[in-house]
């Protein structure tokens, strides 16, 4: 009887230990980002966000070029990926029993778990590769955007589908009963009713995409200059962290922490917004 | 006299979220007999039953006061100072809805209690135990060729008998049944009723039932609960034939079925 | 009129169809990109080829496959006990107001970009471990082949596995938590009624959701296999068949990420071939996971 209690206590102890083990690295990472990187940002609060990186050995420098590059890349990726995701998500919900909807559901479940580095490779092969690519540009920013768009599409599609499935059939039937056409029902009645949910879906996709580095590296390569052309490599925040982190230079490593802090706050901010949207603006359906 | 006591409940009060559910119950359940607890829905029958094996403690914000003595061997123990794990091994419980562990095999459902509680060990002796208990529960012939099937493949009535075998496997002194035949067909209902009667040879049986007729068929004693209070308790025949309390009479004659109508009748 | 009504669904459906076609498109893209390589070498020779060496123009995938399986497998081994106990602690042992916060905290781990985890691995965790744990292992347990090494560095299979294990844990925790929430209360009550203790009850609950746990672990393994950047930053990037966890290695994804952009000709095609292997492993794991899960749903969970 007592042995039983002892064993229970041991297990309980182990359970709490595992929680501790999980939180330590999280706290550690934030600690390093804030101590190492936060200090750097505070010492150059403007320069850090507007300037380009300096060569190793030279004091100072910022990640302005990477922020700009990321904005361009993510912007184009959203422009391509979001409509595809929304439209196919709506189709999956509104034609839920059609063969295409079923197949799309099945495939997007696989695609959300699909290695993003492979998406990058395929995009590169078809678009940018000097040998096989249609545009044959070599590593280029637009290819990275396309890869990111392909990554975000199934995520958005699946979330939008879920959002549309929350609409009760009464509303659908009510709308059709007014004699409205399908497109009016979908885009004038249903979509406005769940627009907060759709925004959330997009934000979730954005948060996932913003931290991606592998697909950018294999499509766009590495650059530490200002964004110049879509057909040239562009810098980006994740890749900057990658190069700076791997470099042996202390100043660069410090800036990698600073960029990490910024990137994480950005992603958390987007995630926070997403949650706000779900909670506050959800028009009860 | 005391030798005949299986469970003795003294001034039992139960409240959930500060709402009083049982309002001072005193009752003595005789040993080696079937006692049926009857009463309208929501009167507190399940809560009374769950107080005895302290399953009630799983409900959040529950307060229990009073005293419950439970016979284990030839001694009466205070249920609320015993180790709950030990108490529950000695006071078996069969639920309203059959709840075998659906993913485990039929055999494992019976042996898991003794195994995890460290009562029986070894494949052979566990299998022997299972056979014995499945026979006792009247299920053996139906499942002896498929002991390794998952339990969810059994029919509802079979599942309920499996649950009974599972409770029996711990060699309890007392078995609590909470409306065990709800939702079962006539055939399975009859088998389980017969089983309850048969079990009183070795165990004390306390059974909540929603049906006065069923109480009449199985019970030696009947307790009538209404609105968290014990209204009447006595030998089955006398409670059914000549109830002392007017409420009991109204209930067993089926003239009023729920609390609201009772209040009205009482004026 | 009818055709106008329908046309919107043709419009929307074409996008859904695009989504469906993405998967075969990826597959043929991989095949197409690797075709130059496989026109010269057979697929079997490729995956069994023991050596990846640029100067000698030898492109065998076996070392990378070996590295991938060891590191991802080890990550899975690390995450399994931790995520199960953590999920149980959160959903069964900790008071609700606190467990919700803790859940959010653990979900936060999943939002850390992998490059940041890699940065932490290369600058903080790796150096820390090599001065503490690894030193201890080499000095005291080096009679075990898995802890033998000639030159101890901070960047090796174990560092990579620890980091990967950490990265996949929040996902597994959240799936197990969700599964535990779905265990019917009747099952818990039945266990308690048999006199089982809290942990024994938890054990029964865990066995009830076993298929769900397996499915989650398969997906997690897939994520570990597919992770590129963080692993490449801490694994040491030297292909070998060394059995020691304290020796560097390479994986399918690290070879790709380190070499793809500069690669040309046969090397590029061979790297895409590695991608093809990754593709097959990933799809296999996702399908196995789905199969297990649908079996669960088809069985006692209705
Ligand atoms: N988990 C719970 N939380 C709060 N109140 C509860 C809970 N379980 C039961 N109650 C309340 O306790 C009272 C008695 O319930 P109990 O289940 O004992 O009734 P019963 O006599 O068994 O009824 P029935 O015949 O319908 O099973 C009811 O008013 C019920 O609403
Ligand atoms: Mg009841």
Structural description of this entry:
The complex is a heterotrimer of chains A (285), B (267) and C (302). Chain A is mainly alpha-helical. In chain A, 75% of the residues lie in helices and 0% in strands. The mean pLDDT of chain A is 91. Chain B has one domain (2-99, 171-265): Rossmann fold. Chain B has a six-stranded mixed beta sheet, sandwiched between helices. In chain B, helix 3 packs across helix 4 (123-136). The mean pLDDT of chain B is 90. With 302 residues, chain C is mostly helical. Chain C is 75% helix and 1% strand. In chain C, strands 1-2 form a two-stranded antiparallel sheet. In chain C, a hairpin with a 4-residue loop joins strand 1 (52-53) and strand 2 (58-59). Chain C is globular, with a radius of gyration of 23 Å. At the A-C interface, helix 1, helix 3, helix 4, helix 5 and helix 6 of A face helix 1, helix 3, helix 4, helix 5 and helix 7 of C. The complex binds adenosine-5'-triphosphate (ATP) and magnesium ion (MG). Magnesium ion is lined by residues 45-46, 178 of chain B.
Write the SSE topology.
The complex is a heterotrimer of chains A (285), B (267) and C (302).
Chain A: H1 2-43, H2 47-50, H3 64-94, H4 99-111, H5 116-128, H6 141-165, H7 169-177, H8 182-193, H9 195-210, H10 214-220, H11 237-246, H12 250-280
Helix pairs in contact in A: 1-12, 3-4, 3-6, 3-9, 3-11, 4-6, 5-6, 5-10, 6-9, 6-10, 7-8, 9-12, 11-12
Chain B: E1 5-16, E2 19-30, E3 34-38, H1 45-52, E4 62-72, E5 75-78, H2 84-90, E6 91-94, H3 106-116, H4 123-136, H5 140-143, H6 156-168, E7 174-178, H7 186-199, E8 204-208, H8 212-218, E9 221-226, E10 229-235, H9 236-241, H10 246-252, H11 259-266
Parallel strand pairs in B: 3-8, 3-9, 6-7, 7-8
Antiparallel strand pairs in B: 1-2, 1-4, 4-5, 9-10
Helix pairs in contact in B: 3-4, 3-6, 4-6
Chain C: H1 2-38, H2 43-48, E1 52-53, E2 58-59, H3 62-93, H4 96-111, H5 114-131, H6 133-140, H7 157-181, H8 185-193, H9 198-208, H10 210-226, H11 229-234, H12 252-259, H13 265-298
Antiparallel strand pairs in C: 1-2
Helix pairs in contact in C: 1-13, 3-7, 3-10, 3-12, 4-7, 5-6, 5-7, 7-10, 8-9, 10-13, 12-13
The structure holds adenosine-5'-triphosphate and magnesium ion.
Magnesium ion (MG) is lined by residues 45-46, 178 of chain B.
């Amino acid at each position: 009887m007592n042995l039983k209690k002892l064993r229970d206590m041991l297990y309980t102890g182990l359970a709490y230990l595992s929680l501790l083990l999980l939180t330590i690295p999280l706290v550690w990472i934030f600690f390093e980002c804030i101590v190492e990187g936060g200090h750097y940002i505070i010492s150059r609060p403007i320069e850090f966000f507007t300037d380009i990186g300096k060569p190793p050995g030279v004091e100072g420098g910022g990640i302005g070029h990477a922020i700009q590059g990321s904005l361009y890349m993510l912007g184009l990726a959203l422009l391509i990926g979001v409509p595809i995701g929304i439209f196919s998500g709506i189709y999956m919900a509104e034609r839920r029993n059609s063969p295409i909807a079923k197949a799309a559901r099945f495939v997007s479940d696989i695609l959300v778990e699909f290695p993003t580095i492979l998406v990058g490779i395929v995009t590169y092969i078809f678009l940018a590769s000097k040998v096989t690519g249609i545009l044959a540009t070599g590593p280029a920013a637009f290819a990275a955007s396309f890869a990111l768009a392909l990554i975000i599409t199934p995520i958005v599609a699946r979330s939008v589908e879920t959002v549309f499935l929350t609409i009760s059939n009464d509303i659908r039937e009510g709308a059709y009963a007014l004699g409205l056409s399908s497109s009016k029902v979908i885009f004038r009645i249903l979509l406005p009713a769940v627009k907060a949910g759709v925004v959330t879906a997009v934000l979730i996709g954005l948060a996932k995409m913003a931290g991606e580095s592998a697909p950018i590296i294999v499509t766009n390569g590495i650059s530490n200059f200002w964004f110049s052309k879509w057909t040239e490599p562009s810098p980006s925040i994740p890749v900057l962290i990658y190069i700076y982190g791997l470099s042996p230079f202390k100043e660069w490593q410090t800036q990698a922490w600073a960029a990490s802090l910024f990137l994480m706050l950005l992603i958390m901010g987007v995630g926070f917004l997403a949650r706000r949207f779900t909670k506050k603006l959800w028009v009860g359906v | 006299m005391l030798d005949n006591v299986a469970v003795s409940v003294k001034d039992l009060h139960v409240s959930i979220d500060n709402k009083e559910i049982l309002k001072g119950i005193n009752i003595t359940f005789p040993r080696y007999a079937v006692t049926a607890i009857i009463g309208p829905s929501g009167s507190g029958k399940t809560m009374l039953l769950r107080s005895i094996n302290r399953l009630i403690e799983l409900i959040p914000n529950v307060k229990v006061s009073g005293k419950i003595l439970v016979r284990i061997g030839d001694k009466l123990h205070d249920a609320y100072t015993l180790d709950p794990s030990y108490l529950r091994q000695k006071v078996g419980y069969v639920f309203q809805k059959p709840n075998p562990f659906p993913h485990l095999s039929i055999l494992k459902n019976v042996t898991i209690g003794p195994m995890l509680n460290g009562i029986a060990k070894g494949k052979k002796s566990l299998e022997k135990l299972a056979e014995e208990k499945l026979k006792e529960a009247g299920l053996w012939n139906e499942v002896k060729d498929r002991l390794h099937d998952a339990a969810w493949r059994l029919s509802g009535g079979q599942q309920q008998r499996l649950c009974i075998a599972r409770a029996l496997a711990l060699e309890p002194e007392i078995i609590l049944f909470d409306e065990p035949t709800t939702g079962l067909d006539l055939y399975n209902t009859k088998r389980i009723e017969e089983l309850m009667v048969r079990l009183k040879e070795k165990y004390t049986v306390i059974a909540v039932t929603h049906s006065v007729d069923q109480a009449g068929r199985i019970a030696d004693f009947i307790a009538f609960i209404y609105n968290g209070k014990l209204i009447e308790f006595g030998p089955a025949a006398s409670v059914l034939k000549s109830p002392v309390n007017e409420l009991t009479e109204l209930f067993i004659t089926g003239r009023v079925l729920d609390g609201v109508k009772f209040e009205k009748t009482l004026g | 009129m009818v055709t106008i009504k329908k046309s919107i669904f043709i419009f929307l459906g074409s996008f859904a169809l695009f989504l469906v076609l993405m998967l075969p498109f990826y597959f043929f893209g991989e095949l197409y990109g690797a075709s130059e390589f496989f026109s010269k070498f057979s697929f079997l020779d490729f995956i069994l080829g023991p050596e990846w060496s640029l100067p000698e123009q030898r492109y065998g995938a076996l070392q990378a496959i070996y590295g991938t399986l060891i590191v991802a497998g080890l990550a899975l081994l690390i995450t399994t006990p931790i995520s199960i106990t953590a999920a149980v602690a959160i959903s069964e042992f900790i008071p609700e107001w606190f467990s919700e916060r803790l859940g959010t905290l653990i979900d936060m781990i999943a939002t850390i970009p992998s490059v940041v985890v890699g940065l932490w691995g290369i600058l903080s965790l790796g150096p820390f471990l090599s001065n503490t744990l690894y030193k201890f292992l080499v000095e005291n347990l080096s009679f075990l082949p898995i802890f033998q090494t000639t030159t101890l560095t901070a960047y090796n299979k174990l560092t990579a596995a620890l980091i990967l294990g950490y990265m996949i844990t929040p996902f597994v925790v959240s799936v197990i938590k969700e599964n535990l929430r779905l265990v019917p209360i009747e099952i818990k009550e039945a266990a308690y009624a048999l006199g089982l203790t809290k942990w024994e009850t938890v054990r029964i609950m865990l066995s009830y959701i076993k298929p769900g746990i397996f499915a989650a672990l398969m997906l997690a393994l897939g994520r570990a296999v597919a992770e590129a950047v963080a692993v490449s930053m801490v694994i040491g990037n030297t292909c070998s068949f060394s059995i020691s966890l304290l020796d560097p290695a390479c994986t399918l994804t690290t070879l790709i990420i380190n070499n793809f952009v500069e690669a040309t000709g046969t090397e590029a095609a061979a790297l895409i071939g590695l991608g093809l292997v990754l593709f097959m492993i990933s799809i296999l794991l996702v399908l196995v996971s789905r199969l297990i899960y649908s079996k669960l749903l088809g069985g006692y969970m209705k």
